[in-house]
């Protein structure tokens, strides 16, 4: 670990949430000599879900935050047997007759030398946890509120178990149901809460020896999106190619029954009914799911986006800031982009503290304002486009293959080709601009 400055000249950061974004942020700040403590409500570092993939922009951001993070991902990532991501028309017919017994290719996208690699969320998080000293994390800590007693005092963090902690900064990485988001935006603000997208997901990990006879070597060795009316499915290998990750999405015209509970139950027969008019191979892979399934409601922040990601010394990152539906497979990666910007700006703020020409509170404000300016527009767009392509995959915007192909291409490339170094250059420039403007206003005042 790098040399850590004395408390007077070191930022003290509390991270609420020990998922992937929170863990990556902790590692990035610790490697920059910033004091960190992660507070997670579970018994250990925790992530919801099974398989996850990272796009090229996310891998670039990992390297910028700390190369060890990228290596941790590579330690558990499954390399695709091909370098392509394929979108296929897997629908049979509205009248129940299968008109396309063999899936019709809509689009092939080249993913690069190693492809779009996936891993199991828990395995990746386990690797990240190895990089965080035990004293830098506390568990079973469920946030209640945060009190600000003035700029010369640390924030007081109160937990539901009656304990408290203190920090200069609190960054909410506490996911889609973020308590920190409520404190940043206001508990009565609709933007503090996610909304139901009228789609739910069914997830499963299928042993590859069962999946290959159904889908074949080609479709189990790479990423395939199976498109159709009212439902669609994503399949890709994980666990070093030993398992096929299956995520099946189904449109739901009804309201979700419990806004505080994101899972429900259904049977494999329910899933098969949703995919009854799909091609045989797609129906076959759905038939390999367990008899009893969890139905995961897909919520996002599209309808009521956050106008800002910070308030005072509170800040949001990852899903707490911009929870998106998973249809681009880029939500976690967008959180890692956030971390790359935050780590850059907070390192710059701490460096400026050594000069003693600006107050700590002003430097924190400049860092968060720069982060807000750099990250809000792009991450809001991701939420919007993820909602859109989820509808596109289920033909809610028409069935024209050429149009679907164009939409997939430009939207995916806008995500994947994002320049992380340029983002950080702009972030540093914005910070220094605000710093100079603050000094000028002080002189003129």
UniProtKB/TrEMBL annotation:
Note whether Membrane occurs among the keywords.
Answer: yes
InterPro entries for the chain? FAD-bd (IPR002938), FAD/NAD-bd_sf (IPR036188), FAD_monoxygenase (IPR051104)
> What PANTHER family does its record include?
FAD-BINDING DOMAIN-CONTAINING PROTEIN-RELATED, HYDROXYLASE, PUTATIVE (AFU_ORTHOLOGUE AFUA_3G01460)-RELATED
The protein depicted here goes by the name FAD-binding domain-containing protein
Q: Does the keyword Cytoplasm apply?
A: no
| Chain segments annotated as transmembrane | 13-31
Instruction: Write out the entry's keywords from A to Z.
Output: FAD, Flavoprotein, Membrane, Oxidoreductase, Transmembrane, Transmembrane helix
What organism is this sequence from?
Answer: Aspergillus lucknowensis
Concerning Pfam families, the annotation shows: FAD_binding_3 (PF01494)
Q: Which residues form the FAD-binding domain?
A: 11-348
